[in-house]
Specification:
- The protein has eight helices and no strands.
- With 164 residues, it is an all-alpha fold.
- Helix 3 packs antiparallel against helix 4 and helix 4 packs across helix 5.
């Protein structure tokens, strides 16, 4: 705990205040054990799935069901996305999300999340909200496929065979 306190104050081992390497020291001082990481991953993943299923049930409530669906579904996707941060760490996850091969998928996914919420609450166009929810699903699939070697190419070939 003292080590974490020193890092948060900006002091090094000798008591010197130095801004260089502060992020590395915070990461080192606050690392989680492997068991805790797996539990955090599972909790976020199950929570994300729960919110997505709950959103589906909320869709059928007359009057305000679609607005609640959009929020719960988006929260579910965010929980599922952040679950992997427990396994690899937030810095490495963000670097991985911004890597050349998945930067476009990350941007598409984040834009779809934001546009889904905007269309439901700001523009109050629920048809557009459903379209963005579908795009959210497709963007999340495309993002997930970016982690599997040759999965995107295989997915495109399978879809082209099925559609033709």
């Amino acid at each position: 705990m003292d080590k974490l306190r020193k890092v948060l104050k900006g002091e090094d081992e000798d008591g010197n205040t130095d801004g260089a390497g502060a992020l590395e020291r915070v990461n080192e001082a606050s690392t989680l054990g492997w068991g805790t990481r797996v539990r955090g991953f599972l909790v976020c993943l199950v929570l994300g799935a729960f919110f997505c299923v709950l959103a589906t049930f909320m869709l059928w409530i007359p009057g305000f069901g679609l607005a609640v669906f959009v929020v719960f579904y988006t929260i579910g996707n965010i929980c599922a996305l952040t679950s992997s941060m427990f396994l690899v760490g937030p810095c490495r996850q963000l670097r991985s999300m911004c890597a050349k091969e998945r930067a476009l998928a990350t941007v598409l996914m984040v834009v779809c999340l934001v546009l889904t919420l905007c269309s439901a609450y700001w523009w109050t166009n629920f048809t557009l909200a459903l379209i963005f929810c579908i795009l959210q699903i497709l963007a999340f699939i495309w993002y997930g496929l970016s982690y599997v070697p040759f999965a995107r190419e295989t997915f495109v070939k399978v879809c082209s065979v099925c559609c033709c």
